[in-house]
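Board work, copied verbatim: ATP-dependent 6-phosphofructokinase
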Amino acid sequence: MTKSNENTRKIAVLTSGGDAAGMNAAVRAVAKMGLYRGCEVFIVREGWAGLVAGNVNAAPADVRPPPQRAGKYHGNQDVEGEKFAATFGEGELLQEGAGEGLKGRHILKVGWDDVRGWMDIGGTLIGTARCAEFREKEGRETAAFNLISLGIDALVVIGGDGSLTGADRLRGEWPSLLDDLEKSKRISAEQRSKHAHLTITGIVGSIDNDMAMTDITIGAPTALHRISEAVDSIGSTASSHSRAFVVEVMGRHCGWLAVMAGLACGADYIFIPERPPKSEDWESEMCNGLKSHREHGKRKTIVIVAEGALDRQLKPIKPAYVADILTKRLQLDTRVTTLGHVQRGGKPCAYDRLLATLQGVEAVEAVLDATPQTPSYMIGLKENKVKRVSLMDAVKATAGVGDAIEKKDFDQALQLRDPEFLENLEAFDYSTIVGDNKHLPEGQRLRIGIIHVGAPAGGMNAATREAARFCLARGHTPLAIYNGFEGLWAEAGNGVQPLSWLQVDNWSSRGGSELGTNRSLPADDLDSTSKALQNHNIDALLMIGGYEAYTAIQTLKNARTNYPAFQISMAVIPATLSNNVPLTEFSVGSDTALNALVDACDAIKQSAAASRNRVFVVETQGGKCGYLATVGALATGANIVYTPELGMDLGLVQSDVEFLKRRFALDVKGKSDGRFIIRNEKASSVYSTEFLTNMLKEEGKELFDSRAANLGHTLQGGTPSPIDRARACRLAVRCIKFLEDNSTSRQAGAKDESAAVIVIENGQVRLAPVEDVSKVADDKNRRGMDPWWTHLKHLVEVLSGRRTLAGGRHHEERMNK
Ligand code: ADP
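↓ predict structure ↓
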């Protein structure tokens, strides 16, 4: 371990409150980033309880003989050996082992390799607990004493609103705690002045997504995955027996999980705390809605109840009571499923790993930037950016939702949620409407064509389902265009057909493309495209696809002068696993692909680790866009990533080989980890996956060998991820509204020149005119310019140790070539 000096920052990290998937990834990121930035890093086991208990039999691990390394790397002498062993060694955690050795010791110094392999493990490996003592001042005083005894001056707390409230109290009270400790002579005046300030940074780990001032909390996306898997499974048995299921999901004060699951799984009804049912007689309101679904031919009924659901009088709505009503009033064979702790379990999904990693890194930066004048921060996510917000304000605002609900001010409670929450809720409502109470006047109803373009992507069907349901609720006719533009051109057959409410019912969870899709484009046959749109009286067109869909809308727009049939309102929902549509931060399908990549890499990593000394070269799809490779590398803990944007050259590959040699040489004998490289299929035409694999085999000698794995089409994913499904629904509603608005003004006499791509920019949804997209399009390489994720490549290098260990050049230096 590194010898500390006076100025070395000592950071401790703890996890507290309810566990959440992704907490380990956050601890890992704090540890690695802290070490990279020259700090000493400690983990506190068992949350606040561990901090209060401190270290009883403190036996310093530093006196142990250093573990035997796998072998020396005889390369560049000035970067070899001890210097790196210092950073890359094991800390007390691995040296002590997890069992008896840790008895009585709760605060341990960690080394780089202590957190190896933590990314894909659910829960929290450093333990969490609820701690009554910390709620009392004496408990917090002891915690402060333990921190000061070890010289720790910064604390990163990963937990829910309770844990962060505790952190905020510790921050507020710090000076008075020090006064008391000095008065009782537990600390010296010198210690008091040295520790006059404690830097506290909060990271929100909470599966409910109930913290204000951040759009998402660590663990919520994974919980949503678990819920969706469960509700999808329940769906098939419900359908078989024509049953109703009432599913209880977590969410004491926040309906995020229920809304997202309802949308992603195509549920029929939801109950959440922030928005009680409209009428006092909610039982009849619910029964009427569900009855109409059954009358439309549905064989299953799914009702999702958030654990904290309330009626207008704040009376809890409980699943057993809901089930009773359904049985008695609708004579449905009804079962209750309480998902409970299953929702906390399992591997973190890709998004949680990414979120936790980025927030852990930012927490360390916040600690290092802190001065006595800066406030304590909570690391949040706003507008797709990791941001620091005031911990005190966030704690206060979070309590605001609860207060509003208590005062029955439900509008206020909803307003305190972010706009995405409200849009998702609206999308859910529309997806369940049957009947004509939301129909537009006769003259404003449209025939809206829906077409899939290009390769399939997870969430295309969910988008189509939502678009169709929204159209039907508004009185429009949703027209399915089967088999892409080829299907549209076909004279014979039934290439264009209206979609019915029931027909799309099960499409939310289906992968692939229910409509059928291919790479044919309008430019291949403009005449037939125009004729078909006219023949079918199509008033507006929704295209769902990747770069092809963007190309198609450009073509149609540009040909408007010659083809009046194209003078209709048109919109594109970007849907592609490559996430290469310019301007948008996320395309539908990219989250599914990222999860498929993460799952595949977990399996590969396991195999690589089992054989102790293997490097896997994993090839991903993505065309000339490195999104999937880069973000995938960060989410899986890959050691190196190669992308088409930066390309590859001899110098780079050479320094990567040096890095791997040094890294393997630093492993403790017999404990070598499997390592892997992610290479986008188009990263280089010379340094192919095969070439790289063979070269590593040759160069690794006794230190490591290598294998290749090509993920190919598996990345399209099987079942689309719930995030993709919910995102697809939200975008579909916005697009149909856009088509509606523009067509209405056309009917009023204005010329309809609208053609837009719906994009997510700084986390906000916007219908961007095609020209806006073209401005940032790199058509030659079929990708956008300057995407938001470019800088993440640097983090891959930092967190894999490459940045520290490699001589020669670093990857991002190629950016300026
Ligand atoms: P979560 O962090 O998941 O919301 P809890 O509400 O149970 O979970 O809080 C976890 C721990 O944080 C508690 O056991 C307690 O030690 C501490 N804590 C919670 N609220 C406070 C508070 N108001 N003051 C001091 N400590 C608190």
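The longest strand covers residues 10-16.
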